[in-house]
Amino acid sequence: MAFPAVEFTDLTKVYEMGAERVHALRGVSARFEQGSFWAIMGASGSGKSTLLSILGCLDRPTSGTYRLGGEDVSRLGDDALSDIRLRHLGFVFQSFNLVPQLTVAENIALPLYYQGVPERESAARAAEFAAVVGLEGRLGHRPSQLSGGQQQRAAIARALATDPTVILADEPTGNLDTATSVEIMKLFRSLHERGKTIVMVTHEPDIAGWAERRLVLRDGLVKEAT
Ligand code: ADP
Ligand code: MG
């Protein structure tokens, strides 16, 4: 039987700030099935980034469990978490986070390099994923020679290159104009139609409308899941 791509139960996160304790997550639970496309929504300070960094294995919950692809990853150490990130997760950020000195092809191939994939094979895969995002004519360009939308396409291709279990996106259209945002959401939608599991944080209802499901946070709790 297929297990959900992402399943978390009673996740809490408390940040210690000197004597003060900030309860960023107060017990959130959800299951994201394989191939689903979720938007995580909520007002500023509701816990969206905290949840995404736990789902992205960049941080650990204070309590609760998190299963990624059926494996409990909530208590793993730093090395194991970075290995999980490399093998199972693809990240897309608001600010694209491309390496400026590298070409589009080299940026897309970067996670494959870290995985030890031979150069010839990673170059071939980079070209393949550049074509998936419509950048086949830009392989030798550097990020500064691309528009914002093209930079985000390159970042999405990089996220896809390792065939991750889940793609995590944090405000992926936050730095883009409306028309370009729609282009990027069409690309996410097409990846969803190809069976990719996508979890996207956004505070914009128009952008969340492109997702298939919505998880709304309020004050560190799930307000609704629809
Ligand atoms: P959102 O992304 O929805 O705006 P966050 O997850 O960033 O919300 O923050 C949730 C709460 O946790 C906020 O009150 C925020 O101030 C607090 N918080 C977030 N990160 C930290 C941190 N590293 N240290 C202390 N408090 C934090
Ligand atoms: Mg945030």
Task: Provide a quick synopsis of the model.
It contains seven helices and ten strands.
What does this 3D model show about the protein?
There is one protein chain. With 226 residues, the chain is of the alpha/beta class. It has a single domain, classed as P-loop containing nucleotide triphosphate hydrolases (Rossmann fold). 34% of the residues lie in helices and 28% in strands. It is built from seven helices and ten strands. The protein has helices at 48-55, 78-88, 104-114, 119-132, 148-160, 178-193, 205-208; strands at 6-17, 20-32, 37-41, 63-68, 71-72, 89-93, 166-170, 198-201, 213-218, 221-225. Helix 3 packs parallel to helix 5 (148-160) and helix 5 (148-160) packs parallel to helix 6 (178-193). It is globular and about 50 Å long. 40% of the residues are buried. It binds adenosine-5'-diphosphate and magnesium ion (MG). The site of magnesium ion (MG) has 2 residues, from helix 1.
| The CATH C-level class name | Alpha Beta
Which CATH architecture would you pick?
Answer: 3-Layer(aba) Sandwich
Distance between the termini: 24 Å
Strand-pairing-aware structural class: alpha/beta
Would you identify the regions where 5 or more consecutive residues have pLDDT less than 50?
Answer: none
Tally of distinct domains: 1
SSE succession: EEEHEEHEHHHEHEHEE
Major sheet details = 6 strands, mixed
